[in-house]
Structures are given as C-alpha cells and as structure tokens.
Amino acid sequence: MKATDEAEFRDFMATRWPALVRTAYLLSGDRHLAEDLAQVALEKTAMAWSRVRDAHDVDAYVRRILVNTHLSRFRRKRVQEVLAPSMPDPAAPDPAAPDPAQRLADRELVLAALATLPRRQRAVIVLRYWEDRSESQTAEILGCAIGTVRSQAHKALAKLRVSPLLADDDPLLLDAPKEGRA
C-alpha cells in the first residue's frame, strides 16, 4: 500500500472503529468477538483499499464485509451462540435524559430480546432500526433482496412484539400499538 493510501486508510479506520465494533457487538453479543469481527472487516478493507475508497459508499462496503464475516462464522463452525447480558457503553449519560437508570434497563431488555432472534433477523433489525439504515441499504449490506429484508423485519418484529422481555407498556423498539392501547 502506498504511503498516502495507508494514511488515508488509517484515518478511515480510526474514525469508523467504534461504530464497527458497536455493530459487530449487536450482531454477535460478545465484545471480544465484536472486536475480532471489526478487525477482520478492516483487514479485508485494507487489502482492497485502492478499489474500496472509490466506492459509492465505503461505509456500506465495510458493513457488508462485517455482516458477511459474522454470518460466515456460523457456516464454518457450528457453535452455540451465547450473547452477553449487556453491552458496555462508554458514552457519558445525557443530563437531559429523563431517567438514565431506566434507559439502561430498557436497553438491556431490548438487547436480551434481540438475543432471542435468529441471526439473520437480528442482523436486519440491527441494521434497519439500530443503525437506521434504509431497506435498500440493509439489503445491499446483507446481499439479499429488499423483499427478504422486509419479510425478515416483519418476522423479527412480530417475535419482539410478543416477547415477554418487552411485555410492559413502554414501546422500546416497536412503534406498533399493543392491544388495549390507543
């Protein structure tokens, strides 16, 4: 890699590392595995940096590598997935937030509910709602059709709606009305 390309890649890597690790954690549920996934994604990106940097959306390209690396991990090894009970959040709490303790408890409930979803559905939910990606961006990252993203999101949201972890009246992740609520 040329010195200018290396400097450009290092800048890219430094700015995208936290977001990639966060996404990888949401996909895998394990902090150490998330760091490994992000590192592999960046390694693959570095190897093709001369092509990647000219891509329309470099972030989408790297996220697709990240998701594919996570999904291929299951193809190679049939391991039982055990998600961590909570994600470390190094960000300082927002002083304007109504109740930081409740937000943290809600977040852990959402993460626990996500852990009950199959890996493909969880990937769709993480990309669509946590990362706020469009259906077409999610489909591109996952390498599938937009209809697949819609059906996987529909199935995942249906499972989350009936999840006992999200049974209270506080709509954490879901904006669809529950029965008995206006």
TrEMBL record:
Coiled coil: none annotated. Keywords: DNA-binding, Sigma factor, Transcription, Transcription regulation. Residues 108-160 form the RNA polymerase sigma factor 70 region 4 type domain. Signal peptide: none annotated. Residues 18-78 form the RNA polymerase sigma-70 region domain. CDD domains: Sigma70_r4. InterPro entries: RNA_pol_sigma-70-like, RNA_pol_sigma-70_dom, RNA_pol_sigma-E_actinobac, RNA_pol_sigma70_r2, RNA_pol_sigma70_r4_t2, RNA_pol_sigma_r2, RNA_pol_sigma_r3/r4-like, WH-like_DNA-bd_sf. Belongs to the sigma-70 factor family. ECF subfamily. This is SigE family RNA polymerase sigma factor. It comes from Catenulispora subtropica.
